[in-house]
Amino acid sequence: MKIIIAFLLACTISFAKTDYSEMSTQELIAIMGYVKKSEQNKFDNELKSRIPTMNEKEKKEYLKNKKKQNK
């Protein structure tokens, strides 16, 4: 299910400029690795601003996805 959601979000992002501040933290975490290079800095800044307010589940998912990106 998470893969489907991430795919749908990635498709949406590919067709429009995205205001990442309007997305939930869970949505941002789900699309890690699917963001256009031209949008990456904007995405990273928004996600980094959310780290201090993430709950334990969100932090765990964030770290898991971050490790996948670095491979």
What does this structure look like?
The protein is mostly helical. The protein contains 4 helices and no strands. The chain has helices spanning about 1-15, 25-30, 40-50, 55-70. The protein starts with a helix and ends with a helix. The relative contact order is 0.15. The model has no long low-confidence stretch (mean pLDDT about 85).
Strand content of the residues, in percent? under 5%
Q: In sequence order, what are the helices and strands, one letter per element?
A: HHHH
Strands, count: 0
Radius of gyration (Å):
11 Å
Q: Distance N terminus to C terminus?
A: 23 Å
Poorly predicted sequence stretches spanning 5 or more consecutive residues: none
Q: How confident overall, as mean pLDDT?
A: 86
Structural category is mainly alpha
Overall helicity: 55-70%
Number of helices: 4
Would you spell out the secondary-structure blueprint of this structure?
Blueprint: H1 2-15, H2 25-30, H3 40-50, H4 56-69
List keywords for this structure.
mainly alpha; single chain; 4 helices; 71 residues
Provide a brief overview of the structure:
The chain is mainly α.
